[in-house]
Amino acid sequence: MLKPPSQSTNQVRPMLFAVFLVLFSLEVIDSRSLVKTLPGFDGDLPFTLETGYIGLGESDEVQLFYYFIESEGNPKDDPLMLWMSGGPGCSSASGLFYEIGPLTFPYATSTLEKPVLELVPDSWTKVASIIFLDQPAGSGFSYARTPEAYITNDTSAAINSYNFLRKWLIEHPKFLNNPLYIGADSYSGIVLPIIVEEIYNGNEVGKLPHLNFKRYVLGNPLTDTNGGTNSRMPFAHRMALLSDAIYKSTKENCHGDYVNVDPDNNLCKHDLQVVNKCLERIFTSQILEPTCDLLQMSSNLTPPGGLTAVDKTFLDNWSLAEFRCKGADIILFLSLVLTLCVLSFTTILLPPTRPIVIKDVREALHIREEFGHIEWVRCNETFSSKHKEAISYTHNVVSSVDYHRRLLDKTCRALIYSGDHDMIVPYVGTLSWIESLNLPVVDDWRPWFVDKQVAGYTMKYLNDNYSLTFASVKGGGHTAPSYKPKECLSMFMRWLADDTL
Questions:
Q1: Which range is the signal sequence, renumbered to this chain (predicted)?
Q2: Whether pTM exceeds 0.90
C-alpha cells in the first residue's frame, strides 16, 4: 500500500501536475462547448452553461456527458459541486430542470408541443458551480463505444465518477482550488459515499490532481436497500395510512421484514395484501398529492409475495412522464408538467411514449454525432434490479452505511436532508441508519425556520472533525427541492456558511 506523500513530494506536486496538464490539454480541448442559447428560452442565457464529454477507460470507451453551470455568485471562490441523480440510470437533467438548477418549465405557459424555459429564483447555482453528470454510461446522453463498456455496477460506477472528476478538473484547472462538494439524491445515495472514499484514498496516495474535497450532501438517499424499503411500513403507519391494528399484525407476522417474505408465511402474505390495498392509490413521491393512473406496469417488476404497492413505487418515481392524469389539482399538475417538460425539451413522444431526441436540442447541447440514434430517456429502466433485462448494471452494494462509517475519522461535513412526505425513501429509515453510526448529538431535534415559518426539523452530530447535519423538509417529497425550492436553497446556503439551521 502506498504511503501518503511526504513534504518533498508535496513540493514537486505542482510541477508534476503542470506536466500532467500539458500532456492532456490537446486531447481534451474539443470535448466541451459553451451553450449560449436554448430552445424555449428567450435570448441569451444569463449564466455560463457548458456541456461536454469526458472519456474513461484505456481507450476512452466510456463517454460521460455533463452539464456544467458556473456559479451566478462568485465562481472564483464559491464551491464546485458534482451532482448526480438517482435511478440508477437517470439523467442529471432531472436535477438540473426539476430540482436545483437555474432553469425550469412554467406550467402555465409550457406545453409538450412547445416547452418554454424560465429562470428559477431559488437555484443552488446562486451560490455554487454545479456539474450535473449523466452516469453511468447508458444514462441520459452518456454512452459507451463497446457493448462491454456498458457493463457496470455500484462500485465501478463510483470509481468512474471519481475518475471523471479528476479528468474534468484537468480540463478546468481554474477550479482546482475551489472547495469540492459531492451531491446526490435517491439511488445515488448508494454511490456517493463510495466516491467520497475514493477521493480520500486517491489524495492520500498522491493521485493527480489533488481534489480539494470538503463536504457531501444527500437528499432522500437510498442507503440501506433492505432497511430503506422496510422503513416504508412504519412511515405509512406514522402518516395514518395504516391503522394501529394493521401495522401491529403485519409487523408481528412478517417479523419486521416486508421484502424477503417467506412464501409459506400465509399470515404475512395476507397482511401485506391488506397493506397493499391501503397504499396502492397513494402517490408515494409525495403522499399528500393525488395519484394518477399509471400505464400498465410489467408484472415482472413486482416481487412475488412481497409488498407490491410499496416496493414498486421506487420505480414509479422515475416514471412520472408516463402518467396519464385527469382532474389532478394544481399542485400535482405543476409537478407532473415540470417532469413532462424535462422530456419534451429533449424529446418527441411517440406511441407508446418512446422518446427520441429532437435535432435542435441535440445541436444546442452539442451532443456528439457518435451518440447516433440512441434513444434519450429520462431514466434507463433496464438498470433496475427488478427489470428482466437488467444485464448491464449489477447492484453489488446492498448498503453504503459502512462507507459513511469509514468517513467518520475524516475532516468532512455532511448534510442529509429528507422531504418528510416521501414514502419511497422515508425519513424514518434515513434517521435509523444515521443513528447506527453512534455519533454524539450536539444539537438535538428542533425546528428550523424560513421566513419565521417551520421549514422542517434538524439534528446535528459531531465526531472530532466530522460533522453530520440531518434536516427534514416539511411538506417535501422524494426530490425535496422540487416541492420546497425556497426552503431547500435556504438550508443549503446556511450549511455552506456553517450557520445553524
A1: 1-31
A2: no
